[in-house]
Specification:
- The chain is mainly α.
- The chain has eight helices and no strands.
- It has helices at about 1-10, 15-35, 40-55, 65-85, 105-115, 120-130, 135-140, 145-160.
Length: about 170
């Protein structure tokens, strides 16, 4: 189904592109929220990623890497927003924050990963929540696969120590 929609979207079928994005929305939201911590920034990153995907879809050479490619675009958009926020000068005013309800599974996962360094958090999220293998993650994050495996193993160890859980030494 995805392959068929991709071919149609590459030929300019906007309905096919919209259906493709609908299929990816939940996954993109989880990734963006793990990086950005609030819905407004996550929505901005997703919107920017969708626009970039739409503009550059004809350049995608191998359709089987669509999700990996889209995830890479989204992560880069999230990093852009984080970079812009670091450059922002904050005032003493406290903004009103809207109330929103997260589903239990996502909020629990975000709470579990929150204390981790970003280099471990993103790899654990992509591996466990999005189902990418270490080779795909290395491509998404533009790093060596052995680095991904090492960070995955260290991230697991840090979480296990934080929750006082005994783990066996094994490779990713």
């Amino acid at each position: 189904m995805t392959e068929h929609l991709l071919r149609k979207a590459k030929k300019g079928d906007s309905d096919a592109f919209c259906r493709l994005m609908d299929m990816q929305t939940q996954s993109m939201y989880k990734i963006a929220r793990s990086y950005l911590k609030n819905d407004e920034d996550a929505a901005d990153a997703i919107q920017d990623a969708i626009l970039s995907c739409y503009e550059n879809l004809p350049d995608l050479k191998n359709n089987k890497y669509f999700k990996t490619w889209l995830t890479r675009i989204l992560i880069n958009k999230c990093k852009d927003i984080l970079h812009r926020k670091k450059l922002t000068l904050y005032t003493d005013q406290v903004p009103d924050t809207p109330f929103y309800e997260e589903d239990f599974e996502t909020s629990e996962w975000n709470q579990l990963l929150a204390p981790l360094d970003e280099k471990y958090r993103s790899i654990l999220l992509l591996y466990y929540m999005e189902g990418f293998n270490t080779a795909d993650i290395s491509q998404i994050l533009n790093m060596k696969e052995n680095t991904v495996k090492t960070r995955l193993q260290r991230g697991r160890r840090i979480l296990a120590e934080a929750y006082q859980y005994q783990i066996k030494e094994e490779h990713a």
